[in-house]
User: Fold this.
Amino acid sequence: MKASAPGKIFLFGEHAVVYGKKALVTAIDLRCFAEVKKRDDFRISSPLGITGIDFKKHPYISHAVKRFMEVKEIKGADIEVKSQIPIASGLGSSSAVTVSVLKALDAEFETSLTDEDIYEMARKVELDVQGIGSGTDPFLSTYGGCWLIPDRKPVSIGKFYFLVVNTFEESITGEMVRKVAKLKETFPEVVDSIMDAIGGLTISAIPYLEKRDIDSISTLMFMNQCLLKSLGVSSDKIDTIVSELNSMGIASKLTGAGGGGCVIGIGSNEKLTEATKKFSTAFFVKPEKEGVRIE
Ligand code: MEV
Assistant:
């Protein structure tokens, strides 16, 4: 059986959401596809290579299989993964892999898991691999749509196109989240105030996104980017891209865990098109309503 699940972008609130603050996140129209067939041993094939159960090379898929086997003991499976989502780029590829593999396992081995079961399992896999995380990425890969997290409140943002510029520097979520946790341990009051500020600007942004008030969104995105930078999760490349986009009149910030990965931008269609000429690694994504599904 074959299943797919979408990636995501954080519009506001990454990192702060790990500490229970608000974040605004939308699924995007890039998907990961997982095909599972019964077999006597395990074979995992993905853009990372071909292995058996391998917690180093295929950590998310291997942990997904392990968690699935708590529900149903299986002898083996052929798991083939193909993805439209660039790996370690802040666009949720790990969660999309996990969720699509769990859905395909569920369908192939007829375990009748609900979407919430799949989300809960993917959430455990996130913690198995990263040790820390808010569960936002697996939630978006499971349910699709645009949400205020942790409230699970759907938000309507209409027909936005988002510009994405890939830095092609790796963004490793566990590493970045641990880095922020360490900073918080060292300077608890300061980092708590930064987290509160990020949560606050997430809430402020919602009405402006609904109204498509690009000027106000730009101001808030700029503030969010500065606060993320103060947490140590930006990079020179991200800063350069953000400032070039800002000077073109495009609101922008890093998205996801940072340290590399992607920058997102919002602006008028003309300005965004102009930016794709300037940045060879730029592309567009759209909000995606549909979460995990059987293909
Ligand atoms: C990663 O996409 C987003 C972070 O906020 C981590 C998490 O929410 O688990 C950095």
About this structure: The pocket of (R)-mevalonate is lined by residues 14-15, 17-18, 133-134, 136-137, 173, 177, 256-257 (CB under 6 Å). The longest helix spans residues 188-211. The longest strand covers residues 23-38.
